[in-house]
Design brief:
The chain is built from 6 helices and 2 strands, in the order H-H-H-E-E-H-H-H. Helix 1 crosses helix 3, helix 1 packs across helix 4 and helix 1 crosses helix 6. By secondary structure, the protein is mainly α. 16% of the residues are buried. Helix content is 54%, strand content 7%.
């Protein structure tokens, strides 16, 4: 199963923007996502560490650390995903097999191209673009 961290993190940041500078708690955001606040706090911690959001211990999230137009989906993806390669290649294939001998190199080139294209697409979409769709 693919991770939903990117989608949930975009949801978190969208709530922050739409609350127009008011402090937002993890409990409030969790109710919007329909999940538990511990998951929201873990993701918010990563977003804060990546300098994408500002928080206050007593208030919760107090806003974005940068303008929404200056935060790309790639920034959020890198901040929240543990492993950033979209695909992994199995290793230790049989070098005596015609497929096993070449599959890693063949898939690596293909997967590298897909990874690059995906990252380019994610970097071209800003959080502000998402907000325009939500409003």
């Amino acid at each position: 199963m693919y991770s939903t961290k990117l989608s949930v993190s975009i949801h978190i940041m969208s709530v922050i923007i739409l609350m127009e500078g008011q402090p937002v708690t993890s409990e409030y955001i969790a109710s919007s996502i329909n999940t538990n606040s511990a998951l929201v706090r873990r993701l918010m911690s990563r977003l804060k560490k990546a300098k994408l959001i500002k928080t206050s211990t007593k208030l919760g999230v107090t806003g974005l650390a940068r303008e929404a137009k200056d935060i790309s989906l790639l920034d959020i993806f890198i901040a929240t995903e543990d492993h950033q390669d979209l695909f992994s290649i199995h290793s230790n294939t049989n070098p005596n097999c015609p497929v096993g001998a070449k599959i890693e190199v063949t898939l690596k080139n293909l997967y590298d191209n897909i990874q690059t294209a995906t990252e380019e697409k994610l970097s071209a979409i800003s959080l502000a673009d998402i907000i325009k769709e939500l409003i």
